Amino acid sequence: MTDLFSPARFGAIELANRVVMSSLTRNRAGAGNVPTPLVAEYYRQRASAGLILTEASPICAAGHGYPRTPGIHTPEQIAGWKQVTDAVHGAGGKIALQLWHVGRISHPDLQPDSALPVAPSAIRPAGQVFTGQEMKDFVMPRALELAEIPALVADFGQAARNAADAGFDGVEIHAGNGYLLDQFLRSSTNRRTDAYGGSKENRARLLLEVLDAVCREIGSDRTGLRLSPVTPFNDISDDHPQETFDYVVGQLNPLQLAFLDVLQGAGGAPREQWPPFDYDRLRALYSGNLILNNGYDFATAQAAVTSGAADAIAFGRLLLANPDLVERFRRGAALNPPDYATFYTGEEKGYTDYPFLPD
After folding, report:
1. pTM of the prediction?
2. Is 118 inside any structural domain?
3. Which domain holds residue 245?
4. Each residue of 188-206: b (16+ CB within 10 Å) or e?
């Protein structure tokens, strides 16, 4: 019987088990948004997970929206990530880089030449952003011009090639959580009247072009995709999310991706408060490897895998606080509680100092 501890093959990536580390922003990059040896140690500690999905990594300078997030668009960043992949591989793990462009979820203080952030449409998000010194209101973004889109697609392809050069086993394209590709997908943030707006087919066009570019660069068997159909994070929504995401997922099978990673529900809300959405439809539509994510514990994760509802389960906070989560699950051991105060600050504290089980 397949369970959480069973090995798996996701495209070209062999997993020792079906416990996946979810992408988690930690804001620990060094100068120039370069991963440091401390970042390498953090991921090395968690290499017993079947697959690590890294924190989101901006594909270009304009893709940044938070301080100290490690990029994948300069030679120094590629070299820094190479230290990370070497450390994880040395510990027997597998690791994929999450490719990110934040779109409108940024601020001129975080942009090259203090430029406006870009978006599918000039719609300002509610809320504020931390610029590195203070919280500031989001600004009105600039709508991407049609002529700029091919270069954006090429940036995703180049970032995937950079990730391969850095030694990653694969990449995950971040098309969720209210960032740029999700902004194109959803009706609340995409008011375009050209080939990239209006119908669900048009709103999905950019994502499908990005998928094609990344697959051509590194192979579809090393490419994954993150979607979050109903999360309202970053002030985003869709008038008909089931129709939108049924269409998107229905376009994926011919690509033969390594995996699809679906964030269920609405952020940290309990399951009974999740907006209506039929995730079983996505499972029925998608013939490839499916990772489900959000709010799982050992029992619910084991049930999802053994029932066939998912091929693997991604854990965020549990793996953040328990680098040896797989072994703790095996032993039925107690779990370390996460230190929420150090999620985005603290250097070693709350990052590489969580205790392991005794041998």
Report:
1. 0.97
2. yes
3. 8-342
4. bbbebeeebbeebebbbbb
